[in-house]
Amino acid sequence: MSLACIIVEDLQVAANYLEKCCEKSGQVVVKGHFVNVPDALAYLNENTVDLIFLDVEMPGANGFELLDQIAFSPKVILTTAKKEYAYNAFQYNVSDYLMKPFTYQRFMEALQKIQPSQETVSINNGSDHIYIKADGKLIRLNNDSILYIESMGNYVNIYTEGKKIIAYLTLKGLETQLPANEFIKIHQSYLVSFSKINSIEGNLVNIKNKPLPISRHYRDSVMQVIEQRLLKR
Amino acid sequence: MNNYSNGKSFIFNAEISVQSISDLYGDDYTYVEEVFETVLKEYELLTNNINSAYTSRDILALKAAVHKIKPIFGFVGLLTVQQQCQQFEDTCHSASTFDLLENDFGSLKNSLTKSKSLIEDEKKKLELFNNQRA
Question: pTM of the predicted model, to two decimals?
């Protein structure tokens, strides 16, 4: 297990210590340290992470305001301990609290509560739809509403007409859930709905004016499917 | 031999919880020195925030500022001061007027000043200790 995390903490000594614990664990890769909510939010608007170590009381916006504004639901470990945060912590699906300063053993106990495989479930029993867990709820997605799916490390972006959903899933997992005759992998990072392809030009598949690359590895299998449907004289 | 080392391990000031330091850092004295240095770098800003909240007689800001500095005493093993910060926070929480905080604040401020000197001294001793071992 390797978790991508950020640390949102304005106390330098606490952030340094946390970073050292992450490094020592060999299970967590620190992608960034931010001393306030706006900087963390700017990062999370462009990147996804599995886990946030979050201080609550910081100058300006507090930690929970960050969780309100991000488009996905990472695991959260609070690095503060106040009873009055208990209700909020429950609402935000906080995995654990770490009272500063905490020992490395206590840090590891908190880490053991992070179970990436249980974060998001998808269910498909050969039906015409799947359910995904995103933004703290189960969302039904009809197979024919999906344009394409993009892998982003431990997350996927699922693109439908006018909507992007970020879910804690792997592309490989989704590939096994969705019907093989409707979805085709064109690249290590892209699974596309065959019926939504508008055109193919060179090594690019075009879906709703979005060009997506066909990798060399998948080109033969993609072209094999196309050949089966290509009208010839 | 000197008053802060028995040759192998560092002898901390009696105010510092050796158990707490050991639980957090083991015998990594180089890192302990780094922790003390980082704490000192943050100390002025954190205490300025406390003094500024006190001057403006803002109980909520004062409570928040003391809450913010509290954990750093845990990082350097000054558990009594950490506890004193917690008690002051509790007093802020229950105080109906600012005047009720004045006595406790005087005592806290005194502890903050003494602690800074103590952390500075320990940092210097740790530096010497680590240099001698290197």
Answer: 0.69
